[in-house]
Amino acid sequence: MLDNTSESYVTADGRTIGGVVMEMRNITLRFGGVEAIKDISFDIREGEIRAIIGPNGAGKSSMLNVISGFYNPQEGEVIYKGAKRPPMKPYQVARQGIARTFQNIALFEGMSVLDNVMTGRLNHMKTGFFAQGLWWGKAEAEEVANREKAEEIIDFLEIQAIRKTPVGRLPYGLKKRVELARALAAEPQILLLDEPMAGMNVEEKEDMSRFILDVNDEYGTTIVLIEHDMGVVMDLSDRVVVMDYGKKIGDGTPDEVRNNQEVIDAYLGVAHD
Amino acid sequence: MAEIQPPAGAPQSVPALLRRNAAQFGSYPAYREKEFGIWQSWTWSQTLAEIEALALGLLALGLERGDYVAVIGRNRPALYWSMVAAQMAGGVPVPLYQDAVSEEMSYVLDHCGARFVIAGDQEQVDKVIDAQEKVPGIDHILYLDPRGLRKYDHSKLHALADIQAEGRAAHDRLYGELTAREAELTYDSTCVMLYTSGTTGKPKGVVLSNRNIIEASKSSSEFDNLRRDDEVLAYLPMAWVGDFIFSIGQAYWTGFCVNCPESADTMMTDLREIGPTYFFAPPRVFENLLTSVMIRMEDAGKLKKKLFDRAMARAKETGPKILDGKPVSTSERLAYAWDNLMVIGPLKNTLGMSRVRVGYTAGEAIGPEIFDFYRALGINLKQLYGQTEASVFITQQPDSEVRPDTVGVPSPGVELKIGENGEVFYRSPGTFVEYYKNPESTADTKDPEGWVATGDAGFIEEDTGHLRILDRAKDVGKTAGGGLFAPKYVENKLKFYPDILEAVVFGNEREFCTAFINIDLTAVGNWAERNNISYGSYQELAGHPQVLASIQSHVEAVNRSVAEDPMLAHCQVARFLVLHKELDADDGEMTRTRKVRRRIIEEKYADLIEALYDGSTSKYTETEVTYEDGRKGKISATLEIRDAATVEVAGERMAAE
Q: Is A28 exposed, middle or buried (0-12, 13-18, 19+ CB in 10 A)?
């Protein structure tokens, strides 16, 4: 592990991890009197798979929501690409190249898989409402180009067979994959995955892990993920942040984290004062 | 038998046929593939250019005359081109089953000594790299889909497109060499080597010459009047001889278009979009389609169900008559036309079979009611009987003589004879050259006069000349009472029930016959859903008392039907059990083409067979299973063994007792 924030290094499996692309500095998030996140700092390097783990209620999803701009922390700052990020709305964050999936799937149930994926292209569409509605002028060429990108992602995630199926009719595991497809359609630099494997069986988890690795490998996307399945986290990620009761209790490679006494206590359960 | 020679000037190889097609109808489509949601197509001239580029690229990589080029992957135009390109450059293409595990693959790669492997995607490349540890001879691996392969060591690994680009760049330097090698190809040179799936023992490499492939393609295309504007969907394993004949042999002979589906899962959608005119499917595909139609009709509204039932009842009378050209009354014709407009036409469209002129099924017996269903729809579904060693065709059914219980008359150019033990022998221009590196097996199978033993027992009907197949010759045995034991005959009758996926009957040298049964999860699962029966696993469903009761009624019905045939009446199933797992090729219980491996099942489940014969009513068993990724595990279950009522047949039973 390097301390130098701008230098890159090569992992054991041959991937190049770049310098720090996003840094969380002393983030504190409160809901009324409840401190969901307490003074947490960590960084995310370009091209890495960064996991956030912790027991239920540790503040992982809140942390992800801070990154995605859904919550603005009361204290601390988010440094993105070297500059301090002002408080932003989620759509502004999305335009900066950060896409996400949700813990409890948030797709348009009545729309087809293809249409759902196309909505992910929103930020790449420039023509206006009327031009698109009338299929007029540049709107046509733009839609064709965006459809091509959407099809590429459908092919990549192997969901061709359900391209025209309404999302509401799909089983849970496939919905998760469609959500990933929609997030990928935005061509994000950073992809936030909130429990991508929750509720899946072993085979679905294996598939999803492979897709996450492939996305990272093929598109060079930086991935931040929250996950409960420790096996998956330890296999997939380059570095892990461990949270418990809103505090950071560990940060490092999977091996470092695995041997951290505080982390072991948090997971095995130790009496809290 | 004198070897057939082509007329002077006629194309003598598959690459020569390709050049003929590119010259004669260069602007017509040769291949289509759905990619990124759109059907991409290649004309015959574009195909020629692609194949030439690849052949030149292979030369640039150092392909020598007689080198073996293994091709592994799902049906994609570029992989078909690879096979033709390999031959063009003087090599021998060897397509392999894409779902083979690495060990099986190593055996074949080692046996043929492949120097080049052309793989579809990362999954296949990984298996080849695994195999390389044991098989040192593989010099180069080419891949089609680059996904996930970016960080692999590329010293011996190449993208197919890069090799084609290198081939184009080296055009001037190597084109002379390519032309020279291509000119050496004759009717006698090897066109392809196909490995048999190996019901017993290790797979054998069947060497097929250009003569075999071209003659078989030519006469079968003429038999069914195949045309240049026909369309086929290529979705069956490329390593299977049928796919080679349909998608390369006949396609290059007649010049029709081969369509490749987007992925294995989209097969049904792609089928509908293409609407093939010439369609081949194993009985299982037709069965699954029928099952899914029936399940959906069960869920449909009352009115729709009623309309469907009435139309089907009428069509079952009229449809086959119209197909066979028999007299049909005007009112029947009108009713059929009406039904066709309202029910049958839309149904055929849903199935993707609106345009099917010639449909074939083979490989296993097909249930009469399945057969009748498709013929009632007006789909010209026929049966053929063939094997790899014959370049597919041994017998096939002519248009007007289609029956579910025969496999047809000898194909053009094929001679048949029945051996003393009832085994069927044939010889034809399609008869294979030899088994690669296995002269003993070649001599065992093919005698000096060219007669080939099929390994199947059967007889030729005297009045019609149709061949009827009973069973594998080696599986036909004797019961303890001395009667003929033909397990397949009974198994097929059992399998015709939609909720029975597979059956294995035992009884050779035994007092009575018994059976293992596999339930069909789709059909039984749907039935359970409709009857509010909850189940947690395949195993639980298979052991459900109501499922057992329904299977028992099927077994008893089959017993009654078997009893009608005096020759086989003693083959009735007296006791049976429903297996707790599906028989699976990964566990070695079936071949990759899903044929039951009797010997292996007998060994593996010896405890269960014993229980079938010792009178016990239940049996605890543990079975080892192999998961898709190669890991092994164990499942255990206590199986209930049931007695089924049999019909007493006068003389037989007495003798046995």
A: middle
Inter-chain residue contact B150 with A148, CB threshold 8 Å: no
Q: Which domain holds residue A181?
A: 108-187
Q: Report in angstroms the alpha-carbon separations of B543 from B72, B220, B289, B551, B641.
A: 39, 47, 26, 11, 10
Nearest residue in chain A measured CA to CA from B628: A203
Complex ipTM tops 0.85: no
Partner residue facing B265 (CB), from A13, A148, A161: A161
**Do B474 and B455 form a contact (C-beta atoms < 8 A)?**
yes
Mutation to test the B interface, candidates A152, A160, A163, A204, most B Cβ within 10 Å: A160
Whether B266 and A160 lie within 8 Å, measured CB to CB:
yes
Which residue of chain B is at minimal alpha-carbon distance from A217?
Answer: B148
* Closest CA–CA distance from residue B148 to any residue of chain A (Å): 6
Residues B207-222: pLDDT tens digits? Answer: 999 999 999 999 999 9
Over residues B515-557, the pLDDT tens digits come to 999 999 888 998 898 888 888 889 899 999 999 999 999 999 9
User: Which residues does B293 contact at the CB level (< 8 Å), separation at least 6?
Assistant: B347, B350, B351
Residues A126 and A87 in one domain: no
How near does any CA of chain A get to the CA of B508, in Å?
A: 41
User: Does one domain contain both A195 and A173?
Assistant: no
Considering the domain architecture, whether residues A120 and A169 belong to the same structural domain is answered as: yes
The yes/no answer on whether domain B477-656 falls in CATH 3.30.70.100 is no
Do A160 and A28 fall within a single domain?
A: no
Using a CB-CB distance cutoff of 8 angstroms, which residues of chain A are in contact with residue B36? Answer: 148, 151-152, 154-155
For residue B253, give every residue at least 6 positions away whose Cβ sits within 8 Å of its Cβ, in sequence order, or none: B17, B214, B217, B218, B221
Q: Where are the domains of chain B?
A: 14-210, 389-470, 477-656
> Does residue B33 surpass a pLDDT of 70?
yes
Residue A158: its chain B contacts at CB < 8 A? 263, 265
Name chain A contacts of B35, Cβ cutoff 8 Å: 155
Beta carbons of A14 and B151 less than 8 Å apart: yes
Q: Please indicate, yes or no, if residue A102 is contained in any of the structural domains.
A: no
> CA–CA separation, A40 vs A27, rounded Å?
5
**Homologous superfamily (CATH) for B14-210:** ANL, N-terminal domain (3.40.50.12780)
Which residues of chain A are within 8 Å of residue B265 when distances are taken between CB atoms?
Answer: 158, 160-161
Angstrom CA distances, A158 to A225, A227, B37, B146, B413, stand at: 21, 23, 12, 15, 45
Taking only the tens place, the pLDDT of each residue in B234-261 is: 999 999 999 999 999 999 999 999 999 9
Whether residue A155 and residue B36 make contact (CB cut-off 8 A), yes or no, is: yes
Cβ <8 Å between A217 and B36: no
Chain-chain contact of B36 with A158 (C-beta, under 8 angstroms): no
- Regarding whether A200 and A138 lie in a shared domain, the answer is no
Chain A residues in contact with B629 by the CB 8 A cut-off are: 206
CATH of residue A50? 3.40.50.300
Whole-number Å distance between alpha carbons of B371 and B349:
18
The number of domains in chain A is 2
Q: Do B37 and A151 touch (CB under 8 A)?
A: yes
The hierarchical CATH code for the domain B389-470 is 2.30.38.10
